[in-house]
Amino acid sequence: MPAHQDQYVGPRDLTRWSSPVGRFLVRCVRPLARWIGPHAALLLLIAVGGGVAAALTAASAEVYESVVERNGVAALDQPALDLAVSLREDWFNAFITGYTNIGGPIGMPVLAISIMVLLAVRRRSWTPVILLPAAAFGSLLMTVAGKDAIGRLRPPIGLAVPPYESSPSFPSGHSLNAIVIAGIVAYLLVVRQNRRRARGITIIVAILFAVTMGLSRVYLGHHWLTDVLVAWTLGIAWLAVVITAHRLFLTFRLHRAALRETRA
Questions:
Q1: Confidence of residue 208 (pLDDT cuts 50, 70, 90)
Q2: What b-and-e string marks burial along 127-162, b requiring 16 or more CB atoms within 10 Å of the CB?
Q3: Cα(119)–Cα(137) distance, rounded to whole angstroms?
Q4: Which of 24, 30, 133, 220 is in the most buried spot, having the most CB atoms within 10 Å?
């Protein structure tokens, strides 16, 4: 695998860390990468990050619960559900139900695995095989941690569109998984796209998929709006962890390649 592969997003070099925090992170992780290698360091960083993310999700759930009890941002929930109910039509309900199944426990793994295999085969690269499952697994951990910590009830069944769901409402797994999978796929695509327009379209499509998937859950009455909003914020945070870990991998792989050329 060439050292420059996946290194750039347009003119931006992902191995250049302009912020003090980024440079500090590189200095901290460099000894680990030298010891176990860039690939192993990438996997270890994602594993540790996933554990930390799940723990923080459980902790943040307590904050979320206190906000709900005080009717803070949760004051948006009932008006949003009422609006969704007022917009429903039988034909649109069926369409949205089919669409939301794409982000479900069957549809999303099938979609993610299909994209992973396609990208891995076409690029002859292990990067999609590492990043996509790692991102998805972290998203699953965060979903489970949040649901176990809160156990929030879903909207009333009488205001939901069947088929009904019985698992805890917070956070919305569909919304969290959609933003993580769409985000990491978009990232994998833009690092290989040379045209700004192509990168822009890719990012817009990913955002639209994540947003519409989340809103579909509110429309169907399967989640409260705040379940979706918090899922989006958690998903963005987890995406940042995975992408940062990959940037560190690229940085140390480049350093290793440069060292080999110097010795040669």
A1: very high
A2: bbebbbbbbbebbbbbbbbbbebbebebbeeeebbe
A3: 19
A4: 220
Question: Which tokens hold the place of 5?
Answer: 């592969």
> Tens digits of per-residue pLDDT, 20-49?
988 888 888 888 888 888 878 888 888 888
Dist. CA 228–CA 221, nearest whole Å:
12
255, two tokens: 């350093």
Phi and psi based region of residue 10 (left: phi greater than 0; alpha: psi -120 to 50; beta: remaining): left
Q: Residue 107: exposed, middle, or buried by beta-carbon count in 10 A (0-12, 13-18, 19+)? A: middle
Q: Which stretches of 70-106 are DSSP H helices?
A: 77-87, 90-101
Among residues 184, 177, 217, the alpha carbon closest in space to that of 203 is found at 184
Residue at 38: amino acid letter? P
In sequence order, the 6+-apart residues with CB closer than 8 A to the CB of 228 are 171, 172, 175, 214, 215, 217, 218
Residue 186's region, left for phi above 0, alpha for psi from -120 to 50, else beta, is alpha
pLDDT tens digits along 103-122: 998 999 999 999 999 999 99
Please count the residues of the chain. Answer: 264
Type of residue at 46: I
